Amino acid sequence: MAMAMAMSRSNAGRGIRLMSTSGWWKAVEPAPKDPILGVTEAFLADTDPNKVNVGVGAYRDDQGKPVVLQSVREAERRILGKENMEYLPMGGSVKMVEESIKLAYGENADVLKDKRVAAVQALSGTGACRLFAEFQKRFRPESQIYIPVPTWANHHNIWRDANVPQRTFHYYHPETRGLDFASLMDDVKNAPNGSFFLLHACAHNPTGVDPTEEQWKEISYQFKVKNHYPFFDMAYQGFASGDTDRDAKAIRIFLEDGHQIACAQSFAKNMGLYGQRVGCLSVICDDAKQAVAVKSQLQQIARPMYSNPPVHGALLVYSILSDPDLKALWHKEVKVMADRIIGMREALRGNLENLGSPLSWNHVTDQIGMFCYSGMTPEQVDRLTSEFHIYLTRNGRISMAGVTTGNVEYLANAIHEVTKSSEKELKAGAV
Prior knowledge:
Layout: H1 2-20, H2 37-45, E1 52-53, H3 70-79, H4 94-105, H5 110-113, E2 117-122, H6 124-139, E3 145-149, H7 153-161, E4 166-170, E5 172-173, E6 178-179, H8 181-190, E7 196-200, H9 213-226, E8 229-234, H10 244-247, H11 249-256, E9 262-266, E10 279-284, H12 288-306, H13 312-322, H14 324-354, H15 362-366, E11 371-373, H16 378-388, E12 390-391, E13 397-399, H17 408-418, H18 423-427
Parallel strand pairs: 1-12, 3-4, 3-7, 7-8, 8-9
Antiparallel strand pairs: 2-10, 5-6, 9-10, 11-13
Helix pairs in contact: 3-13, 3-14, 4-13, 6-7, 6-12, 8-9, 9-11, 13-14, 14-17
């Protein structure tokens, strides 16, 4: 009897505990859709045969198909069955990192000879940015980050989740669809001394608007005057112009001027390794001893986040960058990708002008890289989607990688149709 009563009390206790565990997550609401990934979801759900996706930030060939580079395929063939799948160190592949920083800073850069660069493998460019944001918060807790308007939307999320206060600085000029250089420089001058600034090394996302070499030199000079800290996000090295050295020019200018910079690199776009999530974060230090200390701290930050990075992508990047023949083939393929995008810019602008559009479309070819900041309003973008089944983000950003010889005329006609606006709208520069 006593045993039965004890079991009854035990079951009752379990029942009470089960009841008490309900409703833990009642307050959780569905998260808003990502503005970029949500475009792809909508595109995939559309059954119209003429649908076009110019929202995705991934390279496509002229048939609209994903591309795996020959250099990557050859690297895969060479490493197949020859490498183990053991954990990498917290800082990732040392060999891959060494080749990455050579690509960013130059083979013969003094900072490399002096071993002043603390660098770790990261989870592509996003992971590199997040590592640096956490590093900034931990070791400069009083600091904030200045972010350009506009920028890649995820930049705001990254520094927000690292609890780093954010400010913004002027970058894009809507009326000219170019760089608002005067306002940018004013913001640099007016920011408190020693501020952190996020800079896009090349092919600014989403605008495709980059400073000229002379403008970069002026920016660098003013950073020295104000003792600002430059953090470069370089997601498109080689992919913008087809020349990896040219696309790293901003970084080289800052190096020549003696800045200590940090740089996030990604191999998603320029090697087509989107799903491999391979990148690099590097921080230039005072000397070799400091570089060792900084690297150790970056590794400690990585440890509770993801422990260590994946190995396969790192092997591919190292194999390509360390082999002269594979590297030459890769450079050739990068230029082919960049040239195709440049060609599609010319074709889109040409088609729009041939349609007799009263608007200037010079910015389509003046901008560079994967994205064209078209200047279309959210309402015009909505019409493109609802009437023509053309998908892009509502800020009017067109991924030129999604434009092909097969759809460029259709795209131009649709854009021409939705941008027929009143004279008042045109004069106000709304389009």
